[in-house]
Write a structure and sequence with these properties.
Elements lengths: L1 H5 L18 E2 L2 E4 L2 E4 L4 E12 L2 E11 L3 H15 L11 H16 L2 H12 L3 H29 L3 E3 L2 E9 L2 E5 L7 H12 L3 E5 L12 H7 L5 E3 L4 H10 L5 E5 L2 H8 L9 E5 L4 E5 L5 H13 L9 E7 L3 H14 L20 H14 L3 E2 L7 E2 L2 E2 L2 E4 L6 H4 L6 E7 L2 H10 L2 E2 L1 E5 L3 H11 L5 E4 L15 E2 L2 E2 L4 H7 L1 E9 L2 H12 L13
Parallel strand pairs: 1-5, 8-9, 8-11, 9-10, 11-12, 13-14, 13-21, 14-19, 18-19, 21-22
Antiparallel strand pairs: 2-3, 4-5, 6-7, 7-25, 12-24, 15-18, 16-17, 20-23
Helix pairs in contact: 2-8, 3-5, 3-7, 4-5, 5-6, 10-11
Length: 539
């Protein structure tokens, strides 16, 4: 297997021309106050998960570098965002919804022109397959379009006066202030933009720091951001979190914290804010989503869904199935079919046709996964699949581990990689207790056909997780569905419509329904004297 894995990494000359990067990507640009500034200081190397065969050995491909900004530049970006918001009086927060939509549409149009560059960088920076990289870009564009449509619907519903108990009023949504947006490395475009775009379109100003990995792919979009939004509305910084983000939080000037990462990272940053009660947080954090395969489940369907759920993008998804509980009576049949499907997954480079397994972008990840597998083996588990857990540089071949129990680290920790723990159970209470006692509460998948048993499990989990999937894998989509979690898994709800709400608040203008007040309100609306109080519709 080691010899086989070593053949996966190509020589430079063997990379298809259309997928190779044209040159070393030295990035010195960053965006503050509508200006692309040039960084003259230290740069951070960007290493690809792809290794290249050089002579008799292998070298990790260094594809570029990005600015290592300091506290000074971070605070300059914050000052620009604070100035653009101007305590809610700035041009952006007071701009009409129609005008803000026009700015976002301008950005989307410019973004589409950079598709090939962004897709190529997704492949090289995080090892995502060509198909999934293209899907991530296109899904992000669709999300922006859907957000625009949802905001039009929201605005239309708000363009009316209501009368209640002798009062007349209009209720509209307004921005919260200055937002700090930070996305994850596994979906550095899509997941990032599911907070960034709603924050912007609702009238907030933003300081945006790209993910630790998957950072270069924002570079092709810098000019689009600069040209599409007023100065200071969107500011993009780079560098180590401890040198930049911590300083931003300590000022107390961040009103909204949008972060997708670990709950430890979120906790550490939130503690730095001097007025935590004034900080609105929208967080997508860790998860250990279980699948529960009941005795009467359709095994073929359960295997198909669990393969995709646990190993899509090498299991590097917060929504991935991270542990499989399989009823004792069918566990042997399930594992045999599961192993056969694992064997069909094609390992290779991101641009290879039909590839299902690719190198991992996080340094040290393969060693971490090996440690989980070794710990499980030391506590009585076995690796069931041939060559499971074999590794070569950044590549880790999936390990199906069985039987897993509570003594093993793999039972508790989110592996975020291609290791699949299988737990046999005889009583559904074992699986219920796992979910109830877990620190995480994002999703659960249940596989079975007995309606009474499925209903019992649904009712057991509705107050434990954000989504219960029946006979299907855990997932985020469709984007119109709520995406949230409990416990250490999330704070706030993200969907196309929900994201608009979490990045805004409802404000009301109210008056007693007297003849004099009716005349005043009518005059304001008729003469368009207020940007807030209006009955105009957006079509």
């Amino acid at each position: 297997m080691s010899d086989f894995l070593s053949t996966l990494f190509p020589a430079e000359k063997d990379i298809p021309t259309q997928y190779n990067l044209p040159a070393f990507q030295e990035q010195r640009e960053y965006l503050i106050n509508g200006e692309l500034k040039i960084w003259r200081g230290t740069l951070n190397q960007v290493a690809s998960p792809v290794f290249l065969k050089v002579g008799d050995g292998y070298q990790q491909k260094i594809i570029g570098s990005t600015p290592l900004l300091t506290k000074l530049e971070a605070l300059q970006a914050l000052d620009a965002a604070v100035k653009a918001y101007d305590l809610g009086h700035g041009a952006w927060p007071t701009m009409s919804v129609t005008e803000r939509i026009e700015h976002v549409e301008k950005f989307l149009k410019a973004m589409r022109l950079r598709r090939d560059e962004v897709v190529k960088l997704l492949m090289w920076e995080i090892g995502k397959s060509l198909k999934d990289s293209e899907k991530e870009f296109d899904r992000t564009c669709d999300y922006i379009n859907d957000t625009i449509k949802a905001l039009k619907d929201l605005d239309r519903n708000s363009a009316k006066l209501v009368e209640e108990q002798g009062f007349m009023a209009q209720i509209r949504r307004v921005p919260l202030g200055v937002a700090l947006c930070m996305g994850p490395f596994n979906y550095p475009l899509n997941e990032t933009f599911t907070t960034l775009i709603p924050a912007l379109i609702m009238g907030n100003t933003v300081v945006f720091k790209p993910a630790k990995y998957g950072v270069l792919l924002i570079r092709p979009l810098l000019e689009a951001f600069r040209d599409s939004f007023p100065a200071g509305v969107i500011n993009i910084i780079y560098g180590r979190g401890r040198d930049t983000v911590g300083a931003l939080m300590e000022t107390g000037k961040i009103d909204v914290f949008a972060f997708i990462g670990t709950n430890k990272g979120a906790n550490d940053l939130k503690k730095l804010h001097p007025k935590p009660h004034r900080l609105k947080s929208i967080l997508g954090l860790d998860a250990k989503n279980p699948a529960i395969v009941l005795a009467d489940a359709d095994i073929d369907n359960a295997v198909t869904e669990c393969i995709t759920g646990s190993l899509s993008f090498n299991g590097q998804r917060c929504t991935a199935l991270k542990i499989l509980f399989v009823h004792q009576s069918i566990v042997e049949k399930f594992t045999q079919k599961f192993l056969a499907e694992v064997k069909k997954l094609k390992p290779g480079m991101p641009w290879d046709s039909g590839v299902g397994l690719t190198p991992l972008p996080e340094p040290g990840k393969t060693d971490y996964l090996k440690g989980l597998v070794d710990n499980a083996k030391a506590n009585g588990a076995n690796v069931l699949n041939e060559n499971g857990g074999e590794m070569f540089h950044s590549f880790f071949y999936p390990a199906v581990v069985y039987p897993v129990n509570e003594k093993m680290n793999l039972y508790h920790e989110e592996q975020f990689g291609p290791v699949v723990p299988i737990v046999p159970f005889s009583d559904e209470k074992e699986a219920i207790d796992y979910v109830v006692n877990s620190n995480f509460g994002q999703q659960v998948s249940i596989f079975g056909n007995d309606s009474k048993k499925l209903a019992m499990l649904m009712d057991a989990f509705v107050n434990q997780v954000g989504r219960i999937n029946v006979n299907t894998q855990s997932q985020r989509g469709p984007d119109t569905f709520p995406f949230n979690g409990r416990k250490d898994s999330a704070e706030g709800t993200l969907s196309v419509a929900d994201a608009l709400r979490v990045f805004s608040m409802r404000t009301i203008v109210a008056a007693k329904s007297t003849d004099a007040n009716k005349q005043i309100i009518s005059q304001i609306i008729k003469n368009r004297e207020s940007a807030f109080l209006s009955t105009d519709y957006i079509f």
